[in-house]
Write a structure and sequence with these properties.
The chain has helices spanning 12-31, 47-69, 72-78, 95-103; strands spanning 2-4, 7-9, 79-86, 92-94, 108-122, 125-138, 141-156, 159-170. By secondary structure, the chain is of the alpha+beta class. The strands form two sheets. Strands 4-3-8-7-6-5 form a six-stranded mixed sheet. Strand 3 and strand 4 (92-94) form a beta hairpin. The longest helix has 23 residues, at 47-69. The N and C termini lie far apart (63 Å).
Length: 172
């Protein structure tokens, strides 16, 4: 690196790194998704984001209802093959493990009552946050508790699939 007439000359390697950094920043700025909080002056979501929010919200309702019915096929249609499901106890399961637990009666969801559900769309991903009142029967007995959760959906082959679930118990 040298200085000549007030101009700083960087090596080709530094120029390439700087150009790559600028490109990454520009791409990130252009590719940013919109969410309900990014609606701008009108307070309304773009049409595609509204459709996504409604579709994902409907899938959440269907999934919770199927879980209460013990309908593993119904739940399975919504879950991605590479799902990571983290229970409020901290136990992490794959899609197959989660569905097998429902099928075997390891946990029977007697009621799931979601509250404060918020869906935010980010292009081919959607994030769902909310709280829920849960009534679950396990081999240890019946349990009633509240959770706060975050749920992620990804658009794959034209269909929204749940790819991640993380819940935390809310102290009573």
């Amino acid at each position: 690196m040298g200085v000549r007439r007030g101009t700083l000359y960087l090596s080709n390697r530094m120029n390439a790194r700087f150009a790559s950094l600028l490109l990454c920043v520009a791409l990130a700025a252009c590719a940013g998704g919109r969410s309900a909080g990014d609606a701008g002056d009108t307070g309304e979501l773009p049409p595609r984001d509204q459709e996504t929010e409604q579709e994902v919200r409907s899938l959440e309702e269907q999934r919770f209802a199927a879980m209460v019915r013990g309908d593993t096929a119904g739940v399975g249609r919504i879950l991605a093959d590479d799902l990571t499901y983290t229970h409020s106890t901290g136990v992490v399961e794959s899609r197959d493990q989660f569905l097998a637990g429902i099928a075997a009666g390891m946990f029977r969801y007697e009621a799931i009552e979601p509250e404060e559900v918020r869906v935010r769309a980010y292009g081919t991903a959607a994030v769902v946050t909310g709280r829920a009142r849960m009534r679950v029967r396990t081999p240890a007995g019946a349990q009633a508790f509240r959770i706060r959760y975050t749920d992620v959906y990804a658009l794959r082959e034209g269909r929204w699939r749940m790819v991640a679930w993380q819940s935390t118990r809310i102290p009573e």
